[in-house]
């Protein structure tokens, strides 16, 4: 492993430790010292890679965004029925029974709320929001290209509506995990998409 790869791996381990600490004690009580203890690295090592707690949060948000994108790409299977395929892609934005992904989604919600008060995090939060909105438009374009989307829909407005629906489903799955399993989440997404399509 090269020095660069080793550095990247350590930063990811620190970010993952940050996720676990936030999920365990909450964002307000998270400290660099607690993150260092969770990671198994010394406080000095953590501060070498991230001189400030804000830098840990920024890197962690970027890592979460990257992992979600990777999951979306990996979920696409050639030959999938269009409705099932886009539902599976959207499902990657929502926590499920996988503990690691559940923690990531819970932490992402904490970061998003923190960005309301922390101006330094707002540009990244806004950028991520815009990227997600573009992804929603891409989903609708896939349906449109496959001639299943209702032609009368306003694409810009429907992208916003789909974004709000997925965000709401994601928050509910975090707050009430016992009521939302993977099958139920996928079915709710399919039901929503069907309401916008010409197929039923």
Describe this structure as you would to a colleague:
- The chain is an all-alpha fold and 200 residues long.
- It folds into two domains: 1-51, Arc Repressor Mutant, subunit A (Orthogonal Bundle), CATH 1.10.10.60; 54-194, Tetracycline Repressor, domain 2, CATH 1.10.357.10.
- It is 73% helix and 0% strand.
- The protein has helices at 3-25, 32-39, 43-49, 53-75, 82-91, 99-115, 122-145, 155-175, 182-194.
- The termini are far apart.
- The mean pLDDT is 88.
Summary tags:
200 residues; mainly alpha; Arc Repressor Mutant, subunit A; Tetracycline Repressor, domain 2; 2 domains; 9 helices
- Helices and strands: which structural class? mainly alpha
Name of the top-level CATH class of the largest domain = Mainly Alpha
What percent strand?
under 5%
Instruction: Identify low-pLDDT runs.
Output: none
Radius of gyration: 19 Å
First-to-last CA distance: 52 Å
Helix content: over 70%
Count of distinct structural domains: 2
For this structure, the CATH topology of the largest domain is Tetracycline Repressor, domain 2
Instruction: Output the number of helix runs.
Output: 9
- Multimerization state: single chain
CATH architecture type of the largest domain: Orthogonal Bundle
Q: Would you count the extended β strands for me? A: 0
């Amino acid at each position: 492993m090269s020095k660069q790869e080793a550095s990247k791996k350590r930063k990811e381990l620190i970010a993952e430790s940050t996720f676990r600490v936030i999920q365990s004690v909450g964002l307000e009580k998270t400290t660099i010292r607690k993150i260092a203890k969770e990671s198994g690295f010394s406080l000095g090592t953590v501060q070498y890679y991230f001189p400030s707690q804000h830098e840990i949060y920024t890197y962690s948000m970027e890592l979460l965004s990257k992992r979600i994108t990777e999951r979306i790409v990996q979920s696409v299977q050639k030959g999938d029925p269009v409705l099932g395929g886009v539902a599976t892609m959207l499902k990657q934005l929502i926590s499920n029974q996988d503990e690691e992904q559940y923690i990531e989604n819970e932490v992402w919600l904490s970061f998003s709320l923190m960005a309301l008060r922390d101006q330094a995090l707002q540009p990244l939060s806004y950028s991520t929001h815009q990227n997600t909105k573009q992804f929603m438009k891409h989903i609708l374009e896939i349906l449109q290209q496959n001639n299943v989307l209702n032609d009368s829909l306003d694409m810009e407005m429907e992208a916003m509506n789909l974004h709000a629906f997925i965000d709401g489903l994601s928050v509910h799955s975090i707050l009430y995990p016992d009521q939302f399993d993977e099958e139920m989440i996928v079915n709710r997404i399919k039901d929503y998409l069907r309401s916008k399509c010409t197929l039923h």
